[in-house]
């Protein structure tokens, strides 16, 4: 749409589509694009929409382990002429619950779940998490190898209250910081289309780089390229980085 609606206005969308998404799905798909497959432990509604979402996610190279129960959470995502997205969420978040069989994994990205799911995730060699889950991270009190948040989102700002070895805070087109040191954003490989999924794809690729044994700078560059790539495609999946 050309712009977001203001009070009393009517705007006309130029494109409309639907697909399963959310931070966990975007992270899982980006990991799968870079390494071949990804296992995704999630919670979906025990309704037609939830079961259809599981089927669609499985076609994206994701091995879906879904606990079904309750009603599927939905969201409307508005994308304006500048590619910026605004999201309206409908329904409560469904959380995967632990313990989960995650021992021996090279890397796990904790996007949401209960405390036992988080503690299960710590059995992985490399554990990343999003600052969106700060209350669970605080309660779980595990050491994180990577913590990713945002300098522009009040809900993702960091107050040094968590035990994290590497803290990355993104700053949109300005790049971001790694443990307080600035890094640059990557050049866009095309025209801006849609910013949805850029942050989660950045975080996922950053984790892949660290799990491969790359140094932090190289892993951040990979993440930056992944975030930039997503912005050039419609939705979170069409332009995700593959190498």
* Fourth-tier CATH superfamily name: Ribokinase
Helix % is 25-40%
> What's the shape?
globular
Straight-line distance between termini = 32 Å
Largest sheet: 6 strands, mixed
- CATH architectural category: 3-Layer(aba) Sandwich
Q: What report would you give on this structure?
A:
The structure is a single chain. By secondary structure, this protein is α/β, with parallel strands linked by helices. The protein has a single domain (23-231), classed as UDP-N-acetylmuramoyl-L-alanine:D-glutamate ligase, CATH 3.40.1190. The chain is 28% helix and 23% strand. It is built from six helices and ten strands. The protein has helices at 23-35, 48-58, 115-121, 134-140, 198-211, 216-231; strands at residues 38-44, 62-68, 74-79, 85-90, 107-110, 126-130, 144-150, 164-170, 176-178, 181-183. The strands form three sheets. Strands 5-6-7-8-9-10 form a six-stranded mixed β-sheet, sandwiched between helices. A hairpin with a 5-residue loop joins strand 8 (164-170) and strand 9. Helix 3 (115-121) crosses helix 4 and helix 5 runs antiparallel to helix 6 (216-231). The two termini are 32 Å apart.
